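$ fold --in a.seq
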Amino acid sequence: MRQFQCVMMDVFTSVPLAGNQLAVFADGRGLSDAEMQALARETNLAETTFIIPRDPAVERPSGVKVRIFTVEEELPFAGHPTLGTATVIRGTSGARLVELDLKVGKIPVTFEDRPTGLAFGEMRQPDPEFGKIHDRAAVAGLLGLSAGELSSDVPIQTVSTGVPFAIVPIQKLSTIQKLTFSAQAGAEFAKSSDMKFFYFICRETIDPKARLHARMIFYNGEDPATGSAAGCAVAWMVKYGVAANDERVKIEQGIERKRPSEIFVAANKTVDKIVNVRVGGHAIEIACSTFTLP
């Protein structure tokens, strides 16, 4: 029988039993693609990651190889799995910089020690690609809202820093809190579009220190924290003046799931593009376990 060690993390939170859950397998060598996918279904979390250790001579220039799975598919990139997995790796190395080799490329995660004793990690995501601007009335109809309930001063637009999200700005906090959304309808919409998921945001927030209130609903339910979408959102924010150049702002998410999350984001604006997208937060270990397979 083969045994595989797994660590459970709560990501984008500094307290246990909040944020987004993640399972990290410390050594995925010997697992087939099908077995990794089956283990992701077994954990039944938004994402499960597998660290694939390699020779240090390979890891130094290329980063630590990591694969990311949802319950249905492998992803080229995802935010909270990147931060959570990098935190696990840092726990054994103590390094200030951890670089992950993902399907989307090498992603650096920089850690700052805080007085609380809990490190703050910040990943730099790939530079954003801005895609289609979507029709407000069509998206509102999909959500069961009127077009007037969506913001008119900023667009609904697809942005990708590895995974394409349609950023949907909603006017009122009360509207986004009561939002009901069919992930199946979203998947049908995506078939004829350039986006994969919707990221719903509102500039009215519960925490006055937060810049956005956010929700992300997909085929595995509602995500308590979506770091990949947060990177897309801050690129969108800086492009349209919702956040200033190089300003670190907070996104609150997961409150409707009773798993509040704090995601800190920033990006830079040059003459003609958005660059240096950073997404950060805390991650804490909550449990460890051993999986036994034939």
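$ fold --in b.seq
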Amino acid sequence: MGRRIQKLRRDERGMTLIFVGVGFIAFMAATTLAIDVGMFMTARSQAQNAADSGALAGAVALGFDDFDDRSPNGPAVLSAINASLANAVMHDNVSVTPADVTFPVGPSGNNRVRVTVRRTVERNNAVPTLIGPMFGVPTADIMATATAEAAPANAMTCVKPFIIPDKWIESHSPPWSEDDTFEMFDNKGNPLPTQDVYIPADQPGYTGYSDEYDRGRRITIRAGSGNNINPTFYYSLALGDETGGADYDWNIANCNTTIIRWGDIVIQEPGNMVGPTVSGAQELIARDPNAYWDTAQNTVVSDFHPSPRVFPIPLYDPIHYAEGKNNGRFADFKVANYIGFFLESIVGNEIVGRVIPISGLAVGGAPAPNGAFPIAIRLVE
């Protein structure tokens, strides 16, 4: 019996099974821990998406709805909260309150929105762990912050191939109206004793279009006659390398991705473009026939966001054009700003629409002027 016990004590059969069992437990623990870590990384990424969405939505509301309303019930705060809540984190809502939406001051002024979203123990919505309870960590706190800004834009794309003058101070028959003509020189090219005044968007006292004063303004534009600078006269533009009626029509009905920067010099499209202008505008209306202007809300009502009938129109510097005409320079235009335009209707050869806010681009080149009409919405942090 003693000899048998000694033999069993020295017998190593079955040890492999023990090692495999212990190794399997360790492997399962490491795998489960990896699942927890992966879950935390996914939750963190989803939380960042929620914060990004909230910050961008808040900046859009700040730029286009009400720049001055930063109250808990204002459009900027409510838009930020609603957009954040629309992005679940691990199949559950984040927590974001009005106190989590702040408005830090950036280099361009008080035009930023910062949103912080949370799934934490403090908010009673922490992310549960899988193996963490074995180590006394049943939940994990997840938090993310994002900042977006509504900054002046210095460039635009998808512009239509026609241009109208920016607004000025009418000195001869004030106040400024659509029946006026910008005048600096007499018929002989001599400076007038009293000249109309235009102050560009990059200078204090800018006289041009603004969202604050011109939103909802109805404008009727028609093909320019001669070289007159009239608020309602448009001149056709050559965008890119292609010219001609067919390309001009296409550029109105579609999006020409050529980027037009503030301060760019653009040239006139040769030929009579009244027909292609009307044709392209008719195609835009056909794409969204039920859109209309809500005068009570001072905005567009449409099934599309945005409506294809909303587009940017470039504005030219009337001084640059007037001086060019007076000096015999080839007719070119200096881009002074842009407006958003909702195409309401076509009356004969005239295009009728409303001024509306619009988003633009922030690109390299000349910095955006303080008086820029379009706004660039972008994440900055």
